[in-house]
Amino acid sequence: MADDSSSSAPTKTEKKSWADEESDEEVTSPADPPLGGSKDVEQLELNKIALGGSKDVEQSELNKIALGSSKDVEQSELNKIESLSISEDKGKEKDEDRDGGDGLLDNPEDSNIKAVTTGDSVYSSATRFEDLNLSKDLLKGIYTEMRFHRPSKIQAISLPMILTPPYKDLVAQAHNGSGKTTCFVLGMLSRVDPNKKLPQAMCICPTRELAQQNQAVLLKMGRFTGITSFLAIPADSANYVPISKLPPVTDQVVIGTPGTIKKWTSAKKLSTREIKILVFDEADHMLAEDGFRDDSLRIMKEIQSSSTAGCQVLLFSATFNDAVKEFALRVVKNGNQLFVKKEELTLDKVKQYKVYCPDELAKIDVIKDKIFEFGQKVGQTIIFAHTRNSARMLHQTLSKDGYECTAVQGALSQELRDKIVKEFKDGLTKVLITTDLLARGFDQAQVNLVINFDLPVKHDFPSEPDYEVYLHRIGRAGRFGRKGAAFNLMCSERDRMLMEKIERHFNHTIPEVDNWRSEEDFEKALKDAGLL
């Protein structure tokens, strides 16, 4: 697997049984998705030697920017604690009154977001985008391009924190599909000066797909601002140009994956001295020990030491387990905090079901006879497999039997991955099979159905569910408050045990589809989910 810092040229845009195999390393390794082939593996080893390798660098050295311990964020050291909320009475307007049609943002009563602020700043929730003192050009983009009418709950609470001097750091958690991307994109667009032709804002993402998606949102929202963006992701092999032969980055906003961003900063082609705002999307994965922690901390340390303007750090995700949360609060120890209790994170808009099947072949029959039968009536479907091979085999089996579907996973070339994802986003394909490559942050409003062909498990502990990944997976349906359904296919005692742990963890009982053979039972489930 090749590191995403492997030779690649970013894209510049103006305004511009299977489940037990080794899991897809796409989102569990500090490296970005591989191009495939032994040369990439060899290059990874060379990169590790050049960088010193995570094993060669003591973690204590990397964590120096996270000065102090958890004691630094003890309640006694907070100068001011304030709970922010939006009156639930204000949240009872109809969905169509809050959003112009691209997506239905969350109702304010959907979740109980607890806010803790530090320092003397007092924040008032924004009930209108006009409350945020945004430029006319930004407001025009919000209303005419994004077609939003009012801020969602997470936006109403977090945007005043992001946009109010002295621009304190923020660790923010909210439901999938609640409008988190708008929060940090609007924050970046608001902080940069379009007349300065150099990087002033940076957003770091775990995958190329998420980086591309975030850039698309930024370009759409900032259409009238004159702000340009730079996409720092591994280049297509056909378009490779050495970074040394490319001009320095002059765009105001940089969005990309950590390895490629490091490559550009190391080559002195990407200046960080004017970076005012640094965003980590899917921050729990970016700061996890088995994720991108080393790269993330290096980039953060470089920016904080070189920035002449002072850099605001924003950490956004739908999930933060206890260990990552504690570490995040050490990294931004004097920042504001927004968190949701884990029991409240399960998506009420997405109806979850468990389906017991006698074996793996029966799971495939369920997809053929039930999912394809009803899925065409309810919108698009994403099927999650745990490994690349599982995704590949499922795709081959379905395609061979005449079922139209596509599959994307980390072993594919960058060009093919982009093509498959674009076709799905354009609505040209209806069923997409994938690994956890697309579990996080992948927005497609027409996805109403999610199938867990394999339940997500921790890669080092296969008997333990990956609760965060489970939540991210089912969150691909029911985006922006729409209704959705998720079917968990199981065929072993191990699957049953995993599902019981998931139910206990979220304190949420998941109903069972009584008979895996029964079309009537599946039809009833989809009707109960509001999809038929």
Protein traits:
nine-stranded mixed β-sheet; six-stranded parallel β-sheet; 532 residues; Rossmann fold; 2 domains; 13% strand
Q: TL;DR of this structure?
A:
Residues 161-338 form the Helicase ATP-binding domain. This protein is α/β, with parallel strands linked by helices and 532 residues long.
What can you see in these coordinates?
Residues 366-521 form the Helicase C-terminal domain. Residues 127-156 form the DEAD-box RNA helicase Q domain. Residues 1-11 have a biased composition (Polar residues). InterPro entries: DEAD/DEAH_box_helicase_dom, Helicase_ATP-bd, Helicase_C-like, P-loop_NTPase, RNA_helicase_DEAD_Q_motif. Residues 161-338 form the Helicase ATP-binding domain. The strands form 2 sheets. A 9-stranded mixed sheet has the order 1-5-6-4-7-8-3-9-2, with helices on both faces. The chain has a 6-stranded parallel sheet with strand order 10-15-14-11-13-12, with helices on both faces. The protein is α/β, with parallel strands linked by helices and 532 residues long. It contains 18 helices and 15 strands. The protein is globular and about 65 Å long. Helix 6 runs parallel beside helix 7 (180-191) and helix 7 (180-191) crosses helix 8 (208-221). Strand 14, helix 16 (467-474) and strand 15 form a beta-alpha-beta unit. The protein has helices at 38-51, 53-56, 59-62, 95-98, 136-145, 153-163, 180-191, 208-221, 258-266, 283-286, 293-306, 322-331, 360-378, 388-400, 414-425, 467-474, 493-506, 519-528, and strands at residues 11-13, 114-116, 170-173, 201-204, 229-232, 253-256, 277-281, 312-317, 336-339, 350-356, 380-384, 406-408, 431-434, 447-452, 484-490. It has 2 domains: 50-69 and 78-344, P-loop containing nucleotide triphosphate hydrolases (Rossmann fold, 3-Layer(aba) Sandwich), CATH 3.40.50.300; 350-528, 3-Layer(aba) Sandwich (Rossmann fold), CATH 3.40.50. It starts with 10 loop residues before the first strand and ends with a helix. The model is unreliable at 1-110 (pLDDT under 50). It is 35% helix and 13% strand.
